[in-house]
Amino acid sequence: MVAAGAKCRTCRGPAIIDLPRHNANFCAEHLQELCRRQVVKAIHDFDMIQPDDRILVAVSGGKDSLAVWDLLIDLGYHADGLYVGLGIGEYSEVSAQCARAFATARGLQLREVSLPDDYHFDVPTAAVATRRVPCSACGLSKRHLFDTAATAGGYDVLVTGHNLDDEAAVLFGNTLRWDIDYLARQAPVLPARAGMPRKVKPLVRLTERETAAWCIVRGIDYLVEECPMAAGNKHLAYKAALNAIEAGSPGSKASFYLNFLDNMAPLLAGHRADDVASVGSCTRCGSPTTGDVCAFCRLVDTASAHAPVPVELVRNRGRRHR
Amino acid sequence: MVAAGAKCRTCRGPAIIDLPRHNANFCAEHLQELCRRQVVKAIHDFDMIQPDDRILVAVSGGKDSLAVWDLLIDLGYHADGLYVGLGIGEYSEVSAQCARAFATARGLQLREVSLPDDYHFDVPTAAVATRRVPCSACGLSKRHLFDTAATAGGYDVLVTGHNLDDEAAVLFGNTLRWDIDYLARQAPVLPARAGMPRKVKPLVRLTERETAAWCIVRGIDYLVEECPMAAGNKHLAYKAALNAIEAGSPGSKASFYLNFLDNMAPLLAGHRADDVASVGSCTRCGSPTTGDVCAFCRLVDTASAHAPVPVELVRNRGRRHR
Predict the structure, then answer these.
(1) Which residues of A touch B181 (CB under 8 A)?
(2) Residues of A near B (CB-CB distance < 8 A)?
(3) What is the biggest distance separating any 2 CA atoms in chain B, rounded to whole angstroms?
(4) A234–B267 C-beta distance less than 8 A
(5) CA angle B199-B262-A237, nearest 5°?
(6) Does pLDDT of B88 surpass 70?
(7) Is the CB of A263 less than 8 angstroms away from the CB of B175?
(8) For chain A: N or C, fewer Cβ within 10 A?
(9) φ, ψ for residue A207 (rounded to 5)?
(10) Is B160 exposed, middle or buried (0-12, 13-18, 19+ CB in 10 A)?
């Protein structure tokens, strides 16, 4: 990770990590300082959190969501966690253990929702039942359950652990298609709407290597494995392409994402397809929807009626289709 | 290049090339048909060439510039060629031979300008004298000499061989920085201005693999080697990243470039820094410039005063600096 004898840029003590995009090495203490500073700057620059906000952190048990929860607590915020059980076999079991252990050790409140227990389906079954990629049913379910839990719990803001690599990869995908509506929506803050809390991403100035390092130096036990359902998805190909560019020109990934926000996002304001005016309420659950019944309630109907599908089957399907 | 037994999509005869982005294989005849159709479509869609235009093709001796010249002649246009000698050792010697042989065999007129003979410097020496990358002095010289030759010869339009890979890579570089002014200028047609002909790129709908295949099936002898000065430049890294994306999702490169022109370019109209109003004439050569003496005349002064630098020296410098 770092050359033998490398020194921390701040204190000249032994470094534990090199960060080529900062052209510097850091010790554990000053790596944490850098992470805190980047999160404070993101929260400030993008006006993410107000002093009296009630904060809910969407926690997967992976490095990013545990890092952002830890950072917010470390910075003095009060924040509860929300874990959504997706029923992805052992992957979900271990991720739940990581989230619960983190909360218990710190005396934090972790709310839990479970697709299998509360809605009688899981992500692998939903993928087969809907004949879509697993990430589609998973994302739809999480968005719905995050919104519902935040609204029911009276939270003002929902925090997610999306990091710079995530946001740059999504931006790259939208840019490859020049999908103006998607580009216009890509922001580190999405304002609150009826039935939806404000959504903020305080880690957008930190790479996934930096959030992993935060967890390691803080002794946070997180789920290291990637989701087995995600193998072969385009998001990972976009990350790989950007990593190749970053390796040749350190800092490219940050300037790609942050220059977009500075230079291009203002030009796209006003180009978002306005879908707010036509939103009504789901006749079943009351969530915002453009139809009678919302997409999540329709997914519950389809997926809970299907015979359970083991994780391995979907995983193999994914590989065969690559 | 193509699976054994693969058949041409058009005639079901034996195929010589597979084109995954078209999800098809083609024989030599129908590959040519596809290339002609794409060039006709580009010329038509972007209004590149008018019936009475006098056409000058910038010819390097590589596959793209010889392919575009050949395609224009094949499509019934009258077009002369322009070769600029850059003094890059054996690379330039072979490229000149390819350009001359092509013109002679077809009875076409090839104009020639030479940096060493006419301006007493070459690209390697200019790179060292200006302490910039070789591509910088080379691009500046070519733009100036193309404009000057076209204007002096009374040509209406200058054609270059930039292909889809070239344009997508430049777009990717500008997008990585979100350089709005550069993005706003990126177009397959640049209108004429005082001292500059209209500039058009009829190959923007063809990949470099397709232009190479055109040359091969047409028996055109072209310089295969990349310029030795270009090793390690960012343009090649951008091409590699896009090729990795294209391999996973055929058609991505074309949709990246063409969707930019369709979806984004209209939003950027009006965001070009307006540098036309302040342009005067160079007191030495009369070319458009914002200063007293144009950048090319200043380059001539600096580079022709410097002791000649062998190609190998600059080539090694480039590699050391990667």
Answers:
(1) none
(2) 175-180, 234, 237-238, 240-242, 244-245, 248-249, 252, 255-256, 259-260, 262-264, 267-268, 271
(3) 64
(4) no
(5) 105
(6) yes
(7) no
(8) C
(9) -80, 165
(10) buried
Alpha helices in B153-285 (DSSP H): 164-177, 180-185, 208-217, 234-248, 252-259, 265-268
Q: How many helices (H) and strands (E) does chain B have?
A: 13, 10
Mean of per-residue pLDDT scores for chain A: 93
Residue-range domains of chain A with CATH: 38-320 (3.40.50.620)
> What DSSP letter does each residue of B246-270 carry, written as one string?
HHHSTTHHHHHHHHIIIIIHHHHTT
> Measured between alpha carbons, how far is B245 from B168 in angstroms, rounded to an integer?
12
Whole-number Å distance between alpha carbons of B287 and A213:
56
Residue matched to tokens 């002898």: B221
pTM of the prediction? Answer: 0.90
Residue A277: pLDDT above 70?
no
Band (pLDDT 50/70/90 cuts) for residue B284 is very high
Q: Closest residue of A to B177, CA-based?
A: A256
Q: Which residue of B has its CA nearest to A168?
A: B176
Q: For residue B321, which of B127, B140, B187 has the smallest C-alpha distance?
A: B127
* CA–CA separation, A265 and A259 (whole Å): 9
Distance (Å, rounded) from C-alpha A142 to C-alpha A133? 15
Average pLDDT over every residue of A286-313: 92
Q: Which of B78, B75, B69, B73 is nearest to B100 (CA)?
A: B69
Instruction: Provide, as residue numbers in chain B, all residues whose Cβ is less than 8 Å from the Cβ of A180.
Output: 263-264, 267
pLDDT in tens, B11-30: 999 999 999 999 999 999 99
B65 within 8 A of B57, measured Cβ to Cβ: yes
What are the residues whose beta carbons fall under 8 Å from the beta carbon of A49, sequence distance 6 or more?
Answer: A43, A55, A77, A157, A200, A202
Are the CB atoms for B226 and B152 separated by under 8 Å? no
**What are the tokens at A126?**
């939903």
Distance CA A30, CA A106 (A): 23
* pLDDT above 70: residue A185: yes
pLDDT tens string B157-171: 999 999 999 999 999
Measured CA to CA, the distance from residue B6 to residue B16 in angstroms comes to 8
Six token digits for residue A287: 């969530």
Environment class of A54 (CB within 10 Å of its CB; exposed 0-12, middle 13-18, buried 19+): middle
B interface toward A at CB cutoff 8 Å?
Answer: 175-180, 234, 237-238, 240-242, 244-245, 248-249, 252, 255-256, 259-260, 262-264, 267-268, 271
- Residue B143 identity: R
